[in-house]
């Protein structure tokens, strides 16, 4: 982790009519940090993330991602970040190779770079036997690991992971986190949401959103001390229990 | 009037979704099917709710055969599928009335059963179902599944993608329903929810790994589990993998869970090994295994 802040957010706000979905949140994320972005359903996580990845314009406040402004440089943000979620993953009716080639092309990589990337991925993830299989036929855990690798194809500074491990079996879930650690070790910043509170403990720092505001933000260990809790689930329950997402 | 399965199998185009599944759920039991996506949970639910016919084996629900007496079963079970399946363009109230009418009953007749849950969504009763938040949709779906006072309730992944607070509320509701003598079969990919069931079946890739009470399942775990912490967490896992006596190592929240090939682990020996690899702030202590430890041990066999 370096001292450079790759995400800077100041009083970022999003209103839908009179409803404050995101209410003046402020935080910074350092290069190579694993930052867990937690909150109850309806707390405003997705809305906040959409602003950071340049697909939703904030109502007020400031933010920069990978050095680019979320109001005026959204196309540059998209080029410099990776994104994956359970909903937006790979194309089921393309093979693994076709998916990698397609997304590599989207990110503007040259044919030779894409070929090189495929070679590396085949070796790292042991894809020899499945590289020419349709993605739709693969188990969910495989899809998610591949999808993560694809989101890193263009060597982004930051990767946004929106509930990447939902429904994935416990062993694969842990393998997935090792991939996250590996990417972070190489300097990629990880911005991740999850409903698994044990995974939240794998993060360097977490923030917990309640009703549009960030109510707590610190290292997991410090949060547990502060809230006198034995795990982050208890911290989360204390903070979010009395909120009303309606 | 519980549930009984005897050697149930189902394949789709050669893919074995579930294989030779047998178990019994006692009347009034809160029984959990615990497993990740692809375990076969939904296939099992669809067979038991008579929406799918098994390739082989027999099953009965509330004393009725799932093939011969499917009409009887449909009248006496409630089913909440994993995917929200109510009418999005009907209001909360209209959805409830619709399901009550279909089952030849009224909202008033069984109101005591759904009262606790319905009161939480009543302020939004004129809102269209499609406009409700995730938590509210889930509560409405549960009300609709209960409106005809079913003997057996099937809940397919009711808490998937739901935050920890709403998950806890949902389980509290299930506990209260159980007191009303409804047999409940519930599936979940969250291992920690297993502890809230009377008994659970652990499933992966179409097969049963284990059936027992959550307490017995963890008691049967054959090894001592140590939790180990260090400042450099990623490195800790890598270093432990190279330890000659390692049996398994998995991250668990703040710590990693470690098991040793030998029956007696010399803690100082392991600690010295970790120190020699440059790790700091080392903590090693004995801990209780969890359902997830058991699941991973069974799944790797």
Q: Which key phrases capture this entry?
A:
heterodimer, A: 246 residues, alpha/beta, Rossmann fold, 6-stranded mixed β-sheet, 9 helices, B: 301 residues, Alpha-Beta Plaits, 4-stranded antiparallel β-sheet, 10 helices, elongated
Q: Can you walk through the features of this model?
A:
The complex is a heterodimer of chains A (246) and B (301). Chain A is an alpha/beta fold and 246 residues long. Chain A is built from nine helices and ten strands. Chain A has a domain at 5-56 and 73-90 and 140-240: Rossmann fold (3-Layer(aba) Sandwich). In chain A, 36% of the residues lie in helices and 26% in strands. A six-stranded mixed β-sheet of chain A has the order 6-7-8-3-9-10. A four-stranded antiparallel β-sheet of chain A has the order 2-1-4-5, with helices on one face. Chain A starts with a strand and ends in a 6-residue tail after the last helix. The model of chain A has no long low-confidence stretch (mean pLDDT 92). In chain B, strand 12 (246-252) and strand 13 form a beta hairpin. Chain B is built from ten helices and 14 strands. Chain B has helices at residues 41-48, 70-76, 92-102, 111-121, 134-146, 164-178, 214-219, 233-241, 267-276, 291-300, and strands at residues 3-12, 15-25, 30-34, 56-61, 64-65, 77-80, 152-155, 183-188, 199-204, 207-212, 225-229, 246-252, 255-260, 283-287. Chain B is an alpha/beta fold and 301 residues long. The A-B interface holds A 39-43, 139-141, 163, 166-172, 174, 177-178, 181-182, 184-185, 195-198, 201-202, 220-221, 224, 231-233, 236-237, 240-241, 243, 245-246 and B 35-39, 123-124, 133-136, 160-166, 168, 189-191, 204, 233-234, 237, 250-254, 292, 295-296, 299-300.
């Amino acid at each position: 982790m370096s001292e450079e802040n790759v995400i800077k957010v100041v009083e970022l706000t999003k209103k839908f009519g009179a409803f404050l979905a995101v209410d003046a949140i402020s935080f910074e994320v350092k290069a190579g940090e694993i930052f867990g972005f937690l909150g109850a359903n309806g707390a405003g996580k997705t809305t906040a993330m959409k602003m950071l990845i340049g697909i939703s314009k904030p109502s007020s406040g400031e933010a920069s991602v990978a050095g680019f402004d979320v109001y005026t440089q959204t196309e540059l943000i998209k080029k410099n970040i990776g994104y994956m979620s359970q909903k937006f993953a790979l194309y089921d009716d393309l093979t693994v190779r076709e998916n990698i080639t397609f997304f590599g092309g989207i990110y503007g990589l040259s044919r030779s770079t894409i070929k090189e990337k495929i070679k590396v991925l085949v070796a790292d993830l042991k894809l020899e036997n499945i590289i020419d299989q349709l993605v739709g036929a693969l188990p969910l855990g495989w899809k998610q690991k591949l999808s993560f690798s694809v989101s890193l194809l263009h060597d982004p500074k930051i990767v946004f992971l929106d509930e990447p491990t939902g429904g994935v079996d416990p062993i694969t879930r842990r393998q997935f986190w090792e991939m996250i650690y590996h990417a972070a070790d190489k300097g990629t910043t990880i911005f991740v949401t999850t409903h698994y509170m044990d995974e939240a403990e794998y993060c360097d720092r977490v923030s917990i959103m309640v009703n549009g505001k960030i109510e707590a933000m610190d290292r997991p260990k410090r949060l547990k001390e502060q809230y006198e809790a034995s795990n982050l689930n208890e911290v989360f329950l204390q903070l979010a229990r009395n909120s009303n997402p309606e | 009037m519980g549930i009984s399965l005897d050697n149930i199998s189902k394949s789709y185009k050669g893919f074995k979704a579930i294989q030779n599944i047998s178990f019994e759920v006692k009347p009034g039991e809160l029984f959990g099917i615990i497993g990740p996506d692809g375990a076969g949970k939904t296939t099992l639910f669809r067979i038991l709710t008579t929406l799918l016919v098994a390739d082989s084996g027999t099953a009965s629900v509330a004393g009725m055969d799932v093939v011969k007496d499917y009409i009887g079963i449909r009248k006496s079970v409630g089913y909440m599928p994993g995917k929200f399946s109510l009418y999005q363009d009907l209001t909360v109230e209209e959805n409830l009335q619709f399901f009550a009418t279909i089952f030849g009953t009224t909202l008033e007749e069984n109101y005591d059963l759904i009262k606790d849950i319905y009161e939480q969504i009543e302020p939004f009763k004129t809102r269209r179902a499609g406009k409700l938040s995730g938590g509210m949709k889930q509560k409405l779906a549960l009300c609709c599944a209960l409106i005809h006072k079913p003997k057996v309730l099937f809940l397919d992944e009711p808490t998937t993608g739901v935050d920890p607070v709403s998950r806890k509320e949902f389980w509290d509701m299930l506990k209260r329903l159980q007191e009303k003598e409804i047999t409940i079969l519930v599936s979940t990919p969250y291992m920690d929810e297993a502890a809230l069931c009377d008994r659970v079946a652990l499933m992966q890739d179409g097969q049963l790994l284990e059936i027992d009470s959550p307490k017995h399942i963890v008691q049967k775990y054959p090894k001592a589990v140590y939790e180990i912490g260090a400042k450099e967490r990623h490195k800790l896992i890598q270093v432990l993998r190279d330890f000659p006596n390692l049996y398994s190592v998995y991250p668990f929240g703040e710590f990693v869970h470690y098991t040793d090939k030998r029956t007696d682990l010399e803690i100082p020996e392991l600690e010295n090994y970790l120190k020699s690899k440059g790790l700091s702030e080392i903590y090693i202590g004995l801990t209780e295994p969890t359902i997830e430890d058991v699941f991973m041990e069974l799944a790797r066999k």
